[in-house]
Each structure stands twice: as C-alpha cells, then as structure tokens.
Specification:
Blueprint lengths: L2 H17 L5 H7 L6 H13 L3 E2 L8 E2 L1 H11 L7 H10 L6 H16 L2 E7 L2 E5 L1 H5 L7 H11 L2 H11 L4 E5 L9 E10 L2 E10 L4 H17 L1
Antiparallel strand pairs: 1-2, 3-4, 3-7, 5-6, 6-7
Helix pairs in contact: 1-3, 1-4, 2-3, 5-6, 6-10
C-alpha cells in the first residue's frame, strides 16, 4: 500500500478505536497532521473503501475499518508499545503471593482484564477453563445489541471446545486472531499466548471487539508471556 493511504488508514483505525464513531475526512484533516490536502484525504478514503479496507454505515458519511484493515494495521502499521511501570507492577503483584498456580493465573487474568478493558480467557486443560472481564467486553458499543451478547454468551457456555479450536489454530506461541479467524465470534478479536508451566500447557487470551486497542493489548500479552515463563 502506498504511504499516503497507509498513513490515512492508520489514523482512521486509531481514531475509531478511541471513539467507536465513523471517521470522516474533516476529522482527519482537523485532528492529524497528514501533510496532504483535504481532497487527497477524501480520494484516499474512497480508494481504501474500494479496496476493502473501509466501509461506511448507511446512516453516516464517515468510514469504519474492516476486518481486512485491522489485519493490515497489525501486520504493517503498528509499533509494539512498552507498558508503563505502574501497569507492569500491577501484573507482577497479582501473581506475587504463595497461592497455587491456578489461583495466581486467575488473579493475573483479572488484572489484565482491568488493564485491557476486555475479557480474558485462560485454558488450564481441555476441561479446565476460566474467564473474567465479561462486563468490560459487553460494555463496548459493539455489544449494545442483545443478539450479539446472546451469541457470545452461548459460545462461552462451550468455552472448553472454543479454546481447543483456538489452540489448534495457533502455529506458534503467540497469535492475533481477528474477526472471522477467531472461533469466539466474528465481532471480536483475541490475542492468544500458549506456554507451558511445570510441563503443563497453558493458554491465555485477551478477548475484545475488533476495534480493540491492538498496540496496548499486544503489549499486555507480551508481559503476560514473560510472567507465564517465570511461573
């Protein structure tokens, strides 16, 4: 993708991540120093829509990113971010006690759910799974419709099977599954880590809407990966 279009797509995704509102060309011109004219911004947005990276709700002139756009952003536009020391300390403190492995993993999951404003799922074994943070997930605008909540709730009722599918789809120990790639729901994305603790496999996932803050959540997941290796 040419640099102008890539820069505009990146800003659209970052703006939509913050606001959950369709992004218009005027917002981009007024808010970001893109070093291009308003006409160029509009033309690039039209081209991005024709190429499948953007779409727009029929009630709005603004555009929203597609699943294809998020995949491009994660692969090409995003710089991995370091966590603030306070956030790292919060995660380390959550596993600092003398509790059993399962309990420490659950406490870590709750800490990450709060920091990511997302749900977290943990697989200890094929039939031993845990989730937390659903209130953060369902408070997102994408889940305002009861049908979306019901569908995802039904999936969580079979969480052990879904986690098995997620694990089988991973090619390495770290994966970002967006939209239709994600066995939980097309409306969501999940960042998954797989590791072993005391020779037992563990799966840890941060589950949010496709509009999740990938840069921040990947940083959280990388820190989880480090902590799980320490465990």
């Amino acid at each position: 993708m040419e640099s102008k279009k890539a820069a505009i797509l990146q800003r659209i995704i970052e703006e939509y991540t913050k606001t959950a509102e369709p992004v218009g060309s005027k917002v981009l011109v007024d808010k970001y120093d893109l070093s291009v004219s308003p006409a160029t911004v509009r033309n690039c947005m039209v081209a991005l829509e024709e190429e499948g990276y953007l779409t727009h709700p029929h009630t709005s002139a603004g555009r929203i990113p597609t699943e294809k756009a998020y995949r491009y952003y994660v692969a090409n536009c995003m710089n991995e971010k370091s966590l603030a020391q306070k956030e790292r300390s919060r995660m380390h403190e959550s596993i600092g006690g003398e509790e059993e492995d399962h309990d420490r993993m659950r406490m870590l999951a709750r800490a990450v759910a709060e920091l990511a404003n997302a749900a977290v799922v943990v697989g200890f074994s094929p039939r031993d799974v845990y989730y937390t943070g659903l209130s953060f997930l369902f408070s997102q605008p994408e889940f305002a419709e009861i049908a979306s909540v019901t569908t995802l709730s039904e999936i969580l009722d079979h969480l052990d099977e879904v986690m098995g599918q997620a694990a089988d789809s991973m090619e390495g120990d770290f994966a970002v599954s967006i939209g239709s790639e994600n066995p939980f729901s097309d409306a969501t994305s999940i960042i998954l880590i797989r590791t072993e603790i005391q020779e037992r496999p563990r799966l840890f996932g941060i589950l949010g809407p496709q509009r999740m803050n990938y840069q921040r959540n990947i940083a959280l997941a990388r820190e989880v990966q480090t902590l799980m290796q320490e465990l």
